[in-house]
Every structure is written in structure tokens, then in C-alpha cells.
């Protein structure tokens, strides 16, 4: 998972972050056209993809950028979804306020899990991350006053966005709102991972001992990164609660953590675009193949994972990018 | 008092099942340093073979157990050759986790297609299926089989690792693989043998524990976490550690079920977090 950190400017002189933000905006516009124009009946699916994409991005922050191995990331996503659901039922119905609730809840859970998970590395880290996820899942099942238990928490009805756009059944508002939020998250994260803090996290990932030797306090930094990751996962959880109106136990499940990991790896850990790419690709295929036969789907996911570790350890996105890069390089000659 | 003894018996039986399955994983993790998330799937394969033998072929229990263990090893040795060999020792934990979780998904998918989503029965012989009066309460007779097999496994493993040349070679490779290789120990064969041993133990535990951990496709995912936790709490590569961890976690889980059933696995995982946080290398594991 090592790799040289790119310089801030490309040969043409445009700073990379501007290209990144331009790309994020362009992608949002394209997605809006594709979503509203070509798949108006599938807006629910697209909205769900966006919420899960936030979870995968948050996983990329700790896994791809810090080298933390975790199978408990759904805890952050689910906790935030439950918090948003409860806030909404308690009377906070403004979507923007609910989003803020989700971010705060996610960040707080992120800090707690960061304190536990990043203390060690290797096997103890993996086991604590699993145990933390299962602990939250067991609590969610037990505290049915807040979570609705196995029935799920229902009756979440946010008020109209900016007082104008109602959250309709077709999902027009949900999709637009989610897409805009994802774009903002993406733009912020593209800057964040290039900040000195983000670069130092990559340094910790590549060589924690060396990072410590040059005076970095590794543990607090990882906890801080976990807080950010929790906030991003919280955005996803909030979007899911706002859009779907129901929060179930599946949002804190081990399966969701494992699926998010698969999506990240399919796309490529250590790249935000890779994470996004993986989340979208995986879920579209899941929608098509998984609906036809859920168990063939598991077989296929298993085969794909094994194949990726053998043939494309940096993810499909890096293969695609390399393909594009080669073509660009050949063009001038 | 009777309740306490009941809890102790149940915890002992459950702990022994955990031990038989997990100790193979522990040996493998100590020797070849593979975080093998597919270990639960290996146990499940053993269970399916035994169930097919018992129910569909009508074979006896002992024969089915033997076929299950040998059959699982036979099925998985090609997988060792093709996949696991690449991720021994040198690969990073990330690659190991991905490959083995991918393998787990694959096995779940195949099991579901071949055997369906319902749990498969492993009927016990009449001598073991009834209750057995042990003075203050009656326990299922197969508890005694499980506990006996657990104790036997521990003794056999201790004998193999401490008293045979094979064990000496394994311990040498655990301590320093490069040096062991330089001294003429064929580590590749050794690793393959250890893999077979681990798979065999997983299958054994999968069949014997089927009354407590029923065989169904999601077995692989559901209990994988528990097996991994046992190894982590006990310390990779330590037999005594695996026994201690199995008994402690068996007790934590059983206590939780008796005293606060509505909290599910809460106390189990709380125990895990506390123990791992205090002993990151396991109760009896080697320091880095």
C-alpha cells in the first residue's frame, strides 16, 4: 500500500486540488443528468448508493490513508443513523440540522472507536474493531427504546429542504440533496487528504516507526483521523435515515462493514476516487446480480475478491487509471 | 450453586468446541502468520461432509467423522497450494484478510447453492444423544464426548509439538524461518503439513460442535469472528493460551446467556475488548 505522494501541481501548472474539485463538480452534474434524465425510476437506488459511498469514503480515510485494519466501520454509520432518527422523531426535522446531528454523532463514535482500535496494530487491532462493531450491534438490538430493536426505527419524517423541497416518494429531493452533500464531502476530503495532516497520516501508514522517530505523536493523530472518518460515515448514516425514513439493525451489522471493505478494495484503497468508484460499481452490480440470486452473488463477490488480491492488489480504479494514463502518454507521439 | 455448576458444565462444553476449532487456527497463525478468516468456513465444510455421510449415505458416526476430517483436508490442500502459499509470512495483513474473506464468501455461496439455506442436522448415535445423569443435573451425553475430545486434542497437540521431530521443526520455523530453512528444514512442506493439521482440527470441531454451533451457510461468517477472537485472546501459536481463552470466552458467553439473555453477545464482546486491550499479544502469546 505504498506509493509516492504526488506533487501539488501537474505539468500544465494547474494545482491538483482545483482539478479535483472541478472533477467533483463535473461528476455531480453528470450524475444529476444521468439520474434525473435516464433513471428517474431508480432514484431510490442511486440515493442509497450515495449514502453507502460516504461509508466507503470514511473507511478509506482510516484504512487507505492510515493503514488501520477494521471490520467495524458500520458502527459509526449506524450510530449516526440512529441518532438522526431519534433527533427527527424528537422534533428536529430540518434536514440540514439532522445532517449536523449525524456528523456530530458519527464523529463522537469515531473518537471512541479510534481510541480502542488504533491503540494496537495487526491482529489485536482487527479483533478489537470486530468486537467494537459487534458490541454496538448488540446494544442496538437491546436498546429498543432508541432503536426499535429488530423492527427498526421508523416514522422518521424530515421537513422540506430549505422549507421548499418536500422529501417526496419518488426521491427527487432525496437524490438531489444527497448528491449535493456527497459533492461537498468529496471536495472537502480531496483537500483534506492533501493537507499536512493528511500527508502525515500517509507517512504513518507507510512507516509508523519512522513517523514516531521524527516526532509525530501517532496515536492522537490516528484518533483525530478517526473523528473525521466518523463524521464522514455520519454523513452517510444521516443521509440514509433522512432518505429512507427507517433505520434497521442492518445499518450496524458486520455484513455492512465487510461489504464496505469489499467495495473499498474493489475500487482501490488509498484513493478517494477509487473508493467512490468501488462503491458505485459494487452496488450497481449488486442491484443487478444480487436481485436475481443472492447466493450466486456471494460466490461472485468471493471470486472477485480473490482475483483482485491476486491480479490487481491496488483495486480496479488503479487499473482503469493506468489504462487511461498510458493512452494519454501515447497521444503526443 | 446448582445454577453455577450448570453454567460451568455448559461453559466447559462450549469452550472445548471453541478450543478444538480455534487451536488449529492458532497453530497456523503462530507458524505462518496468516490471519485466516476462512477458518470457520473450513469447519463448516467438515460439518457438511459429516451431515451428508450420516443422513444421505447412512454411515456410522465415527466413520462420518473420519471422512469429514480427511475429506475437508483433501478439498482444501489444492487451495493451500494455489492461494495460501502466496500469503504465508511475507504478505501484509491486508492482503491476507481480503483473500481469506473472499474465500469465505465463495464457500458460503457454494454451500448455499449445494445444500440450501437451512441448517443441516448431524444426528448423534443413540449412545450419545440421550441425557446423562451426573449427580446434580443431567447433561447431554455428547458434552462428555466434546470435553473428552477437547482434552485429547490438547494432549495430542502437546505431544506432537513438544515430543516429535515434526514439532521441533515447527517450533524452529516459528522462531526463525530463515534460519530453519538454512539448516535444511523444508519449510514449504512443513507449512503445508501445519495447514492440513489446522484444517483437520477445524473439521473435527465443526462436526463435534454441530449441536452447539449448527451447520448452515452463514456458519462461516457468524462464528469466524469468535474463532479469531479466541486466538487473539489466547495468543497466536500458544496451545495453553488457546485453552485458557476458549474457557474464559466460553464462560463469558454462557454467563451472559444465563444471566442477561436479552443483551445477547454484549458481555462476550465487552470481555474481548477488555482482555485484548490489556493483553494485546494474548494471554500467553509471545511478545513481538
Structure description:
The complex is a heterodimer of chains A (333) and B (288). With 333 residues, chain A is an all-alpha fold. Chain A has one domain (16-254). Chain A has helices at residues 16-38, 43-63, 74-89, 95-117, 123-142, 144-147, 172-192, 196-206, 208-213, 218-244, 254-267, 272-292, 294-311, 316-330. The longest helix of chain A is centred in the C-terminal third of the chain and has 27 residues, at 218-244. Chain A is globular, with a radius of gyration of 20 Å. With 288 residues, chain B is mainly alpha-helical. Chain B has 13 helices and two strands; from the N terminus they run H-H-H-H-H-E-E-H-H-H-H-H-H-H-H. In chain B, a hairpin with a 4-residue loop joins strand 1 and strand 2. In chain B, helix 1 packs antiparallel against helix 9 (187-208) and helix 7 packs across helix 9. The longest helix of chain B is centred in the N-terminal third of the chain and has 31 residues, at 2-32. Chains A and B meet through helix 5, helix 11 and helix 13 of A and helix 4, helix 11 and helix 13 of B.
Question: What is the terminal-to-terminal distance of chain B?
Answer: 42 Å
Question: What is the number of strand segments of chain A?
Answer: 0
Number of helices of chain A: 14
| Rg result of chain A | 20 Å
Report how far the terminal alpha carbons of chain A are from each other: 32 Å
Give the averaged pLDDT of chain B, no decimals.
83
The amount of beta strand of chain B, in percent, is under 5%
By secondary-structure content and strand pairing, the structural class of chain B works out as mainly alpha
H-E order of chain B: HHHHHEEHHHHHHHH
User: What order do the helices and strands of chain A follow?
Assistant: HHHHHHHHHHHHHH
**Would you tell me which CATH topology of chain B applies?**
ABC transporter involved in vitamin B12 uptake, BtuC
What count of domains describes the coordinates of chain A? 1
Secondary structure category of chain A? mainly alpha
Query: Residue-averaged pLDDT of chain A, rounded?
Result: 80
Biggest sheet layout of chain A: none
- Portion of residues in beta strands of chain A equals under 5%
Stretches of chain B where pLDDT falls below 50 for ≥5 residues? none
Query: How much helical structure, as a percent, in the residues of chain B?
Result: over 70%
With strands numbered from the N-terminus, the spatial order across the biggest sheet of chain B is 1-2
Q: Give the second-level CATH assignment, the architecture of chain B.
A: Orthogonal Bundle
Amino acid at each position: 500500500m505504498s506509493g509516492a505522494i504526488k506533487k501539488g501541481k501537474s505539468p500544465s501548472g494547474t494545482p491538483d486540488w482545483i482539478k479535483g474539485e472541478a472533477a467533483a463538480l463535473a461528476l455531480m452534474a453528470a450524475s444529476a443528468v444521468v439520474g434525473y434524465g435516464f433513471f428517474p425510476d431508480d432514484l431510490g437506488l442511486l440515493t442509497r448508493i450515495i449514502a453507502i459511498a460516504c461509508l466507503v469514503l470514511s473507511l478509506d480515510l482510516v484504512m487507505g490513508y492510515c493503514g488501520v485494519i477494521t471490520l467495524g466501520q458500520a458502527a459509526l454509520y449506524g450510530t449516526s443513523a440512529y441518532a438522526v432518527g431519534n433527533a427527527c422523531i424528537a422534533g428536529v426535522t430540518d434536514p440540514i440540522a439532522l445532517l449536523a446531528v449525524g456528523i456530530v454523532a458519527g464523529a463522537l463514535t469515531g473518537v471512541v472507536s479510534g481510541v480502542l482500535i488504533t491503540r494496537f496494530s495487526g491482529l489485536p487491532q482487527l479483533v478489537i474493531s470486530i468486537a467494537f462493531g459487534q458490541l454496538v450491534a448488540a446494544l442496538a438490538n437491546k436498546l429498543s427504546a432508541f432503536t426499535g430493536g429488530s423492527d427498526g426505527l421508523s416514522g422518521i419524517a424530515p421537513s422540506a429542504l430549505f422549507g421548499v423541497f418536500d422529501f417526496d416518494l419518488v426521491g427527487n429531493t432525496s437524490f438531489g440533496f444527497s448528491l449535493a452533500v456527497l459533492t461537498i464531502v468529496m471536495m472537502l476530503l480531496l483537500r483534506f487528504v492533501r493537507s499536512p495532516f493528511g500527508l502525515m497520516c500517509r507517512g504513518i501508514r507507510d512507516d509508523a516507526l519512522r513517523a514516531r522517530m521524527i516526532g509525530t505523536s501517532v496515536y492522537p493523530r490516528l484518533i483525530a483521523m478517526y473523528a473525521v472518518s466518523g463524521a464522514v460515515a455520519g454523513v452517510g448514516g444521516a443521509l440514509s435515515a433522512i432518505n429512507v425514513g427507517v433505520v434497521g439493525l442492518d445499518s450496524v451489522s458486520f455484513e455492512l462493514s465487510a461489504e464496505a471493505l469489499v467495495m473499498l478494495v474493489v475500487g482501490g484503497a488509498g484513493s478517494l476516487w477509487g473508493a467512490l468508484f468501488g462503491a458505485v460499481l459494487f452496488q450497481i452490480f449488486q442491484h443487478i446480480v444480487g436481485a436475481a440470486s443472492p447466493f450466486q452473488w456471494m460466490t461472485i463477490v468471493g471470486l472477485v475478491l480473490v482475483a483482485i488480491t491476486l491480479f490487481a492488489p491496488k483495486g480496479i480504479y488503479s487499473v482503469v487509471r493506468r489504462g487511461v494514463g498510458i493512452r494519454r502518454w501515447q497521444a503526443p507521439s | 450453586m446448582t445454577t453455577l455448576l450448570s453454567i460451568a458444565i455448559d461453559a466447559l462444553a462450549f469452550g472445548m468446541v471453541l478450543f478444538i476449532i480455534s487451536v488449529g487456527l492458532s497453530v497456523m497463525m503462530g507458524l505462518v502468520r496468516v490471519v485466516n478468516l476462512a477458518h470457520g468456513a473450513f469447519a463448516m465444510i467438515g460439518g457438511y461432509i459429516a451431515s451428508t455421510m450420516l443422513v444421505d449415505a447412512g454411515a456410522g458416526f465415527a466413520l462420518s467423522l473420519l471422512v469429514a476430517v480427511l475429506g475437508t483436508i483433501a478439498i482444501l490442500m489444492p487451495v493451500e497450494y494455489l492461494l495460501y502459499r502466496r500469503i504465508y509470512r511475507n504478505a501484509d495483513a491486508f492482503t491476507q484478510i481480503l483473500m481469506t474473506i473472499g474465500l469465505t464468501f465463495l464457500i458460503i455461496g457454494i454451500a448455499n447453492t449445494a445444500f440450501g439455506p437451512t441448517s443441516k442436522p448431524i444426528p448423534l448415535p443413540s449412545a450419545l444423544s440421550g441425557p446423562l445423569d451426573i449427580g446434580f443435573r443431567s447433561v447431554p451425553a455428547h458434552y462428555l464426548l466434546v470435553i473428552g475430545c477437547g482434552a485429547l486434542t490438547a494432549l495430542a497437540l502437546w505431544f506432537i509439538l513438544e515430543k516429535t521431530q515434526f514439532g521441533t521443526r515447527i517450533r524452529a520455523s516459528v522462531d526463525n524461518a530463515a534460519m530453519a530453512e538454512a539448516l535444511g528444514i523444508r519449510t514449504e512442506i512443513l507449512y503445508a503439513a501445519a495447514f492440513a493439521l489446522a484444517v483437520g482440527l477445524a473439521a473435527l470441531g465443526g462436526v463435534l460442535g454441530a449441536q452447539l454451533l449448527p451447520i448452515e451457510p452463514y456458519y462461516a461468517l457468524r462464528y469466524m469472528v469468535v474463532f479469531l477472537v479466541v486466538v487473539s485472546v489466547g495468543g497466536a501459536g500458544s496451545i495453553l493460551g488457546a485453552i485458557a481463552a476458549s474457557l474464559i470466552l466460553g464462560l463469558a458467553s454462557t454467563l451472559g446467556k444465563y444471566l442477561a439473555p436479552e443483551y445477547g453477545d454484549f458481555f462476550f464482546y465487552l470481555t474481548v475488548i477488555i482482555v485484548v486491550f490489556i493483553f494485546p499479544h494474548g494471554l500467553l502469546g509471545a511478545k513481538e
